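Q: Here's a chain of 268 amino acids. Please give me its 3D structure as tokens.
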Amino acid sequence: MQDQRAEIRIQRASLAVIGLTKNEEAHIGACLDSLTWAERRVMFDSFSTDRTCEVARKHGAEVMQHPFGDYATQRNAALNAVEADWIFFVDADERATPALAEEINSLLLPLTGEGMGKGITGYYIPRRNYLLGHLTRGAGYWPDYQMRLLKRGYARYERPASEIVEMEGRAGHLKNPLIHYNYDSIAQFHAKQQFRIDFEATNLYQQGVKPKFYTPYRQYMRHFWWRFVTLKGYVDGAHGLRLSLMLAYYFGYRYYKRLAEMWRRSAD
């Protein structure tokens, strides 16, 4: 009986790390190298045309491919396809620190999930963001909690972009961060923001939200104040000012200009 109890105590819940990829050849190797402590690593790829899949396999990861519709649909497809007790989502431009690995591994014991905290089915993980080569402490980029560690079967993603998690159970927070190398260049920043605002504007359009002629300009000022002052973008000096201005342009001005364009086209 004592031996049986000892065996039960050392059992651990299974964990699979999933990365969503599309042409991430430059990042995927280093990302996977930071995840060698995980027993299973899966790259859920959107039919990359570069060497992403080849590099992933060389670094010991499984590769599954699925056509990309939107972020929420892709994450839900990955949750359905990969079997494990817990799923840890990591992007290709993110790195897991040894401290984060140790914290997650400590939570996987015992198999009953008691290590995870009673009733907890998902964990927020902070991210330490490097944007355009600068460690970014303000403008909403620290601690930048992301729901990434999920008990499979208890969570689904909603909204096409800036997706959110609908979860059965309670949420917990981890202490140790993911390292996020976000936006290597201004061109990459502009391309990604344009991609996201198209999704976001479509979402508002489908909800019937109609902007007035002055809305983009008002939202530009409000978003800049929110990023630079309320979220303390000023702590990052000139980098924080530039970042706050660029984010205000896209999520204040361009966001609502795009929405207005959709309504004009529907009226033609």
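Q: Can you summarize the key feature?
A: Residues 1-9 have pLDDT under 50 and may be disordered.
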